[in-house]
User: Fold these one by one.
Assistant:
Number 1:
Amino acid sequence: MNLRKSCLSALLALFAAVAAQAEVIKIATTAPDGTAWMKEMRAGAEAVKARTEGRVEIKYYPGGVMGDSATVQRKIKIGQLQGGAFTGGEIANANPDVQAYSLPFLFRSQAEVDAVRAKFDERVKAGFEKNGFVALGLSGGGFAYIMSTREIKTRDELKAAKVWVPQGDFIAEIAFKSAGVTPISLPLADVYTSLQTGLIDTAANTFAGAIAFQWHTKIKHIVDLPVSYVVGVMVVDKKAFDKVSAADQAVLRDEIGKAFVRLDQIGIEDNTKAVDALKKQGIAIYEPSADEIANWQKIGAESAKQITGEKSPSPEIISAIEAEIATVRKK
């Protein structure tokens, strides 16, 4: 009898231990450790662990240690990772509509961005579920600007440059090709080394991003005209997400969502501070003339017409976003 009781107790203890095991969600990203992105994502992870009483843990692999975005997605597919934090361009293959925010020269102000995102963020996030992902958070990184080791003031000067576009970001590729540029496609993690070796001499990034990835140590010139709006999104494989209880899923969405809301405001502040830091570094920030701005916007409009097909944002979401922007500009 005592033996049976002992066995039963041991079995119950085993089941309790298994039940108590945390569901570990491994997330990889190219975002460097120590950046605001990593600090806020870690704060979100700590809140998730606390509120789920340890049932759900998030483990991050920053700085590209798990490979570029394509490699990370392959590792998610085989279960080595459960998710990733990507730029919109890096994860657009899983939801082309996320790239609707990053069409060339689409936005001209933060007010336009805020109005559009208030209406479309939830729709964009929901689009990932059609391809087996759950978007836990979406945040703006800010506006990307053309930055170079050489002076670029005209379209012809850009044509002569060795311009980087993110690997897989066919929208950026179309935009530069519309300007007569043959861009060089590379993973984000390779840009710093490529600037160093001269494989490329021109790229686009946010002001804060240029500092975070150390590009500011190589570039000398920036064109003060927003090329596109950069977004970041954290996605988790839906199969991994479904292993978590409904209550804990709600906690995940809530806490990571709040972290990404904080990142929106931090991003605006960091980009403002970064401008001053870049100027102090001796980087020249060139303000184009009204005619030059009109010329670049014309290029953006021309390239937008070429963005079609299954890899592109849906025509419906593009039209709806453009209509919302037009409404904001009338105010």
Note: The chain has one domain: 2-330.
Number 2:
Amino acid sequence: MKILILSCDTGEGHNSAGRAVKEAAESKGHTVEMMDMFLLSGKRTSHAVAGAYVGIVKHIPFFFGFIYKVGMLISSSRRKSPVYFANALLGKKLASYIDRHDFDIVLTPHLYPAETITYMKKKNLLHIPAVAVGTDYTCIPFWEETNLDYYVIPHEDLIPEYVKRGVPEEKLLPYGIPVRQDFCRNLSKEAARKKLHLPMDVPMFLVMSGSMGFGKLAVFAAELALRCRNGEHIVIICGNNAKIERILRKEFHFNKRVHIIGYTNHVSLFMDACDVIYTKPGGLTSTESLVKNIPIVHTAPIPGCETANLHFFGARHLSVSSKHLAKQVQLGKALIENDSLREQMSEAQRRERKPEAAMQIVSLLERLVSHE
């Protein structure tokens, strides 16, 4: 089976989901190509789309929240949005690419390629099955105007929301958000710390801010370090934000209990090594933490879908959160110090996590191709 996975570089979460499916499919002997759809129009277009999104999220997140709310108000299954027409422009190029490379099926963890695929199906330009994967714990605006064969969604409790928005229930498959196999395997805390050269017998926090380094990370890190008076260590993963990394390295240069990490491919190992994770409520990082079964404190969300993620996790006791930095620090310290609190959250996580999502998606793709 030859699979095309389409994503785009608006944050790392969608790409991580795509790579998880790619890894699972390749482990079963399938051929997989994963690409940024906008590269079909050249690197300049790809960089423009990614740059616009990341720029808004990092520098004016309240505006992103406003756009999201407007999208929720105007999106409808009865009419097409400007988002659809913008992505439809790539329809013919994508159809040509698929035909030239003889793919059997296409999958996308991102709305934009789903819009393009919808246009292609309408114009009879696509003749293979197409599957979408939702990467947030909500039905984001404009999913309902797309028309793919199936939609893999994060949880069965979201089915009513998707149906209410206009996605047919028979197309919804609540397999979960796919994560790489690293996150489905647990290494002992001692072994992980040994590999990472971290101290053994101390409580340890992991602080993450996503691939874009979103959030008031420097302020939060200073508050957490100030409150850690019992020998706790802090590992801070800064993402791709080199400026924040430089600031933190300078600020904590003489503090040997604070470990500053830039972008890393070893997040799973750091999760194994630490006792509690602080992370913004991105769909992928939250799911990776959930599957890892590590206590979660959610920090400030990017307004929009991350707010929905935070509410979903909080309502099911999968994480705790607060708007206030000092309270976030208190919540993390309580989880480290209180075995009962930590076990209650761990039990809820074990009940709700879906570590087999990637493999289930591959099985779905196999069935769809075999029925063609």
Note: Residues 2-178+355-370 form a domain with the Rossmann fold fold (CATH 3.40.50.2000).
Number 3:
Amino acid sequence: MNLAIRKLDPNDIIVLEDDYVERIDLRLKLFDETKLYGIHESCFSAVRELYLFVFNFLIKRYPQYFELTDNGTLFYNKIFDKKFPYNPIGLTEVELCRNITHNIEEDFLIMIKNSEEKEYDEYVLRAAVSLHPSGFNPIEKLNMPLTKVHGPVPGYVEKLQFSMNKFFARLKKYEFVVRNNWSFQTHTNLCAPSGSQSHATMEDMIKIHPLAPNDLDFNKCFFRVEKQCFTRLPETGGDLMFIRTYVTSLMELRSELTEEQKNIFCDAIDGMTGEFGVYKRRIEWGEAVKSFVRGESNGSQPIPTKYKFVH
């Protein structure tokens, strides 16, 4: 296990793509229905800084879609034909989080160095909008140090705790880095805060049974990738994490892979062993996914169809 961090072009920290309107509409629905957001009182200044960072980034990176109007007091999203206060001072927790959500597809987390003696070397999760969680609810982890946030991850303390704490301590202002986290899901939810949908413990093993490939509609089974971007906010010093979630149906993915890539793909699944494989529920979907990718099964619905996410 390692972090696999690499440098990121600053222009790519927030990205607009073809599904922007559809995805923002879904995120606003999830924002209102799930309440998966929160700001600790110690983090309001950092969230205000993030608010301005997002708006200024969009104006500079996509001037054809975003601009300041009304003598610089309003931020105008031309795609939605909607204006937002440019100055975050005086905005409530809901207004800050929802205005950011209305303009970008990325979730965000902000970590601040803890001042409590017993957790001196830990960063603490102090603010989040997490509308596309996978396997756990970050809002339930609000105000927890990193080690407690990652408590369910097998081997975290032994293999990742030291490097993770060092990584967050060394984040620099105006420097952007990225890593990816990937998994599979056999359900149709972008918003999946329940661990039972994505993760498992060793105790769960006796309850988990391998899925049969012929019983699965692979238009509704997905390869899920999180693009996790990191930087340090220059004014407040909060450590910022953007999470962009991409999902590709296995039906679509199989059609795009070469034979060599299919073998690499299946080898990566086989590489999920031990507790980590259990944590990712590999015993449930692993053989079925490999069978489909190799063309040994076409699933229960062999005709490719595009699934539209509603949750």
Note: The CA atoms of residues 135 and 195 lie 4 Å apart.
